[in-house]
Structure formats: structure tokens, C-alpha cells
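Same chain as my last thread, 860 residues:
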Amino acid sequence: MGYLLHTLAQMKAPRLSLRTAIILPLTLILFAMSALIFVIQSISYQNTLEDISKKELTTLAQTVRTNLGNYLYPSFIISSTLSQSVIHHFQEPISTSADKTSFLFDTYQSIKNQLPQLDTLNIGVDKTGYYYGFRKESDHSLSLLLKDETTNNDLVVFDGNTRDAKELYRVKDYNMHPRPWYAPVAFSRKQMWSEPYINNDEKKEITLSALTPIVDKGQLYGVIAADIKISTFNQLLTKQKSQHNRSIFIFDANQHLVAQSESSDELSIISEDAPKTETNNPLSIEGGRRAIYASTDPVIKAASKAYLSQSVSDEQLFEFSLDNKKHFGYVIPFNDQYGLNWHIAISIPESEVLSKMSSQQNIMNLTIIGSTIFLCLTGFIFLTRVTSPITQTAKAAQKLAKKEWNTQLPVFGQTFETYTLVKSFNEMATNLQVAFTDLHKQLAFDSLTGLYSREGLIESVKNHKRLNGFVFIIGFDSYRNINDTLGYNTGDQLLKAIAETIKTIAPANSFQARVGSSEFALVTLNMESNDKQDLINLIIRTFDKPIRLGMENILLSPVIGTSNINNNALEQALRQASIALSHAKKNHAKETTYSPEIEEYSLKRTQTILQISEGLKGREFVPFYQPLVDLESGKIIGAEALARWLSPSKGLIPPMKFIPIAEETGLIHQIGYQILLQSCQDTQNEIDAGRWPENFHIHVNVAVDQLASEQFISELKYILKKTKLSPNNLMLEVVESNLIDDNPLLLENIKTIRSMNVGIAIDDFGTGYSSLAYLQTIPFDCLKIDRAFIKDLTEKNGHNSIAAAILSLTRDMNIEVVAEGIETAEQAKVLAELKCGQVQGFYYGRPSPLKEWAINFPLK
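reply #2:
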């Protein structure tokens, strides 16, 4: 069973073609390798991307740091150089305010082209509080900023480089000492940078000053401030961004913005929400600078949050996302000896880095994809050419399996193995074609008679589009006896003669076939119902005449089963005709036409056979016992064991429902064995229990076929030994009508049985054809007069009856005579007068199971 299930599973499992089985794994391997290359390349690409971005950012950061240093430090060089000259020019006794401004103007005018980033160059005198300065305008002209003895303690901004110019702006009571460009250096007495602050002029620009103290003889004389506007910082960073397309911003140690590349507006770094403070606050007028994470620029804001979320270090590379786009960020410190503690931050979008790598990456990807496709196509073409002969061979094999014998055979392959395979297959296919032709002929035609076989008949008739006729199946009752008596060679010759006879009487356009060992089919097409009976009569008349074979005249007994061909269903019509033939044989009829009732009977018979077989397995066949009475004493001296079928589902089934079928099928042997075994066992048990006397006789019916079998004697000996029943207590009954066959083994077994002291009784005596003759040839111990001779027995006809003749005939034979079927007291009385020894019938008791015997027939 396991092997069968495995085979079915194998049959249902999908099958790949050879080409697919070879190409698919190779293709998968190629694609897997390509995918692996893509993965490795992706990892390498990511690492390369990070390396490139780091190099880009590092290089740019160094460039920005260098440029920023070059941008800032010249201011200190100027202020340092100028500080010595200021002491000389400003402390001259004859130096006037005009001389001082003229000196400062000449100095600024000489350097302004070399220092375009310089915005204001101013000097504050500590003792007097005077202020001298020049501011570069947008047209590169210089404007005077002045506080001296002439400005009434105010800071005046002129629209020109002299005091004669128009006054632009005046700061009342200007005090420089707390200003962020003056106070820190006045306190520290060393060069330094100021914090970013807002000028007190009309422009209110954010400024970063390079501060240098003017010290004379250890005393602070004043402060020189070289101012750089924050807006120029932004312009510097914006220029860097335009060159490198990178976002750049600078922030101090408190993470406040100093400058950024995203806007040239210097006020973009101012926080409007910052609280106002004292006047010495660098940004007290407009509020504090924005924190980097509060920048108005989204790139700076996102980069700042990513930077601050990590452990802050002097130099740091990080990543962040903005609008689902990846960016790289880099921060480096910018410190100098003048107190700057800034950081330069640069960010770059991943797309910018990818743009440099995309062309190379695309070329690499296209190369991988192209190579994979090329290898797949090349492998496909090559393997197709290699496997094509094999796949063609497989397709040809499938067609041959479907009996398409004209299939075109495949061409030879180009490799040695495929060439050998295809060549061998072609040779095998050719041999198969020849063998199939021969086999088809053997299957389609009967080798003995030359008629169609059953398969050949069906195949030939199915080519006709319309079938409207009849099927006749002809059988012969006596054919088996002919084989047994005349031999199989004669039987074969007889079959040939029958076939030739059928050919001669068959109508035109009919088909003849041998469909069984001695059964022939005749199929007529387009035959009317009126012609059917004429053909039946012709067949019967023809085969009722003896057939001459050599010196022998053989008389056959034809039996015919017929059916109609409906809806082109020839196979069904053949089956139905066969059912009709079987029915005719069972009923000893010459011809039977199929009907649903016949099929139903056949079906029930088949079901009964199956049920009998199951009943034998379940030991459902049991003996019922009917008493045998000594007529003179009236005592029960024995019993006949009658087979009964106790079905769990149907209850008690009458013997006539199963005995005939069991005899026809041979199952009667097994039923007889079970009844004989159980009867012997019951009898011995009852004798041992004292309920039956020791000379109690048990009569058991045995079929002639069972009695004539080779193994019956051994079975009988086994039963007697197993049950320990004395042979003297057992009487085997054989129906007299079944003894007409002169079977040597039957007579031999009867003699052996009697030699074992087991009695033989002839049952239903008087119903056979040769009863008197068998009284001389068959040894027996008991004769049972059939009930047919008892039922009409009366006192008036008793002495002239057949029963009286039988009793008279057997009186001197020293055998027991039992009269069956006693139903009345009158019959019993007449038999007593005729000196009949034993009787049996309903008058004395009906058959009953053993458990009811003690109740119905008490012996004591």
C-alpha cells in the first residue's frame, strides 16, 4: 500500500522538462551570482559613498577653515602695525583732530584694496573718550565717524571722509568704554576678537572686530578696532557654497550661529525672541543670536539636531535625513590665539555624492545585467541545441505511449550520449511499431477462429456513426463435456466449425466475434425488430443439427442472449446480452432477451454471493435440528441437521434463497463443512451432557460435489477427531437425483466413508431418473423416501402407493428406511401399517436451533 501511495504521489507530482531542469538551475545560479555581486557592490558602494563623502567634506572643511583664516587674520596684522604708528602720530603735541583723521584715512585708503573684507577701521582714545574711524561704503568710498571736542560728546557719522561733509547720523552722548569692541580689550590689554555685535550707527550692521590695545609706557592709550561685517562672512560662505554646492555654517562654543551660507542677510542669525540685556551685550539692540538647532534654514536645523544628538567632539562625521533624503555632515573646530572658539559645519546631500558615482555605478550595473543576460541567452541556445534531441525523444515517447505509431522520430544529437540515446530510441520505436502491429492483430482477432476478439469487435464497430441493431451472444451448454470426453483438440476444431457456421448465417454488414471460451457474439447494424426473431430461429435451427468432425457427429445445445444497441453503447449492449445468456442457461431456455429485471436479478445474485462469502467468514451458517422418530416406539432416536443462515442484518434466511446459488458457485463446500463440523460437535456435547443417548444418530446433508472432492475424506477424519464423535453416530445424506453422474471418485469416497463406520443415506429417494439401478451400484445404509410420495398418502391408497412399493422393495435389503414429510396422524398411521421404521416431518417437530431442543423435544 505504501508503495502504491508513493507511486500515485509520483504520478501527480509536476514534472519539469529536461531543458528547464538544466537551464533553470544555471539561470538561478547566474542570477544568484549577479545578486551577490549587486549586494557586495552595494556594500562596497555604501562604504565608498561614505569614504567619498568624508573626503569631500574634510577637504572642503579644510578649505573653508583656511579661507576663513586668510579672511580674518589680516585684520590683526593691520591693527598691530597701526598701533605703533598711532602712538607716534596721536601723541604729537601739534597733532590736531584733523591730523589724526587724515592719518587714519590715509592708512585705510592704502590698504582697503588689499583687505576688501575690512569694513570699519577705528581708534578709541581711552582718556578723552574720543573716537576716530572710517567706514567703507557700498561704493568703496570712506565715511568719517568722529567724536571729539567739536561733536559735543556725540558720535557723528558723515557722508564723506571729512567733517565738512553732510552729517548722516548722530549718536547722542556716545560712550565707547562699555562697547563690545572696546571694553574686553581694555580689560585684558591683549589682542582679541570681540563677540559679534551690532553697530550703533544708522545701519545697525552685525560686526566682528579684531581688537588691538594701544599701550604706551604700560598705560592704555586706546584701542584699535578693525571691523568685519558678519554679512561679508555670509557672502564668503555663500561663495564657498556656490563653488562646491555645500551648506556651510559657523557656530560658537554655545552653539549659536555666527554665519551661514544659506542667506546673505546678516539678520538671519538673530533671534527675535531673545531677551534684551545691558548695553554691553554684543547684540543688546536686536536680541541674541539664534541657536543652531533653531535656524530658519531647514538643512542647518536638521544637521544641528543630528550633530547635537551624538557625543560632541572637536571633529565629527555624521548622517541625517531631511525630507526622506540622506545627507552627510561634518564639523571641525576653528580656534586661534585671539580667542576664537568656533566650529565650521558642512553638509552635503547624498545625491550630490551619488552624482559623481552614478555614471560609474550605472556602467557597472549595466555590465552585470548585460553579462547575465548574455550568459543566460548563450546558455539557453547552447543547452537547447544539446537537449533538443532528448526533448524530441521524450515527446515522441509520449505519442508512442498514446499509440500514435506514425509519430515522426527525432533527429540524432550532436553529442555522443544523445546520439546513442536517440539512435537506440529510434530503433526501439521501430521495433515497438512492428510489435504493436502484431499485438494489435492478436488483440483484435481471435487466433483460433479468425473472428474478432471482444476488443477488436468494439474497436471495429465504434467507427460507425450510428448503431441501431442488436447483439446476439451464442453459448453452448455441452461444450465443457465435449472437451472432457473428446479432448481439447477436438474442442478447438469444434470452435472453428462453429465460427465458420456463424459466418455463413450472419447477415450482411454484421460483425462476428469470439467473446468467451465457447461464446460467440453477432452484432447486426440497422436491423429491424421483425428480423431479430428470424435470425434467432435460424441460429437455433442451424446448431440443433449435429456438426460432423471426422468420424464424430457432435450435437450442440445453443443458448442465445440478446440485447438492443442504444445510443451507440456497444460495450453496454455486450454486457447486457451476456447477462441475458447467463439467465437463459440458468433457466434452461433457448433464448432470453435482456431486461432490467434480469439485470436486477443478476445483481442480487452477485450480492448474495458476496453476502454468503461474508457470512462464511462470520460463521453465520448454523445447523437447525429436526427429530427422527422411531415409528414403532414413538421415541426420538436421532435428528437431521439442516443448514440455516442467521444474518445479523436480515435475520433467518430461507435455504432456497442461498442453497442453489451456493451450489452453483461452489460455496456449498464451505457451508457443508461448517454445518458438518458444528453438528458433530453439538451431538458429542449433548451426548456428553446426557441429554442425548449414546446411540443418537445425527444426519447431515452433503453435496455430491463436496462428497466427490479429493480432500473430503481428510476433512471428515479431521472433524471426527476434533469433535471426538463416534463414526457410528454420523449419517451423511446425499440427494439421490445428484448421483446420476458416474464419478469413480464419488463411489470410491462412499466406500471409504462406510469403511470408517459412517453411514450413507440416499436423500429424496424416488425423484431421480435411475433410482432402481443405483440401488444395485451405490453402497448405502439408509434410504429416505421423498416427501412427494408422502403428502397424498391416506388409509384408502396407502397399500397401493409408491411409498408402499419402496418399502416392499427395500424390506429384504437390511437398510434403514425413513419417510420424510409426515404432517398428519393419518400419514403416520398408514406408514406404521406399512412397517416403515423411522419417520420425520412437521407432525413430529419443525427444525429448531439446539438451544430450543431441550424445550421442544425432551428425551427424558
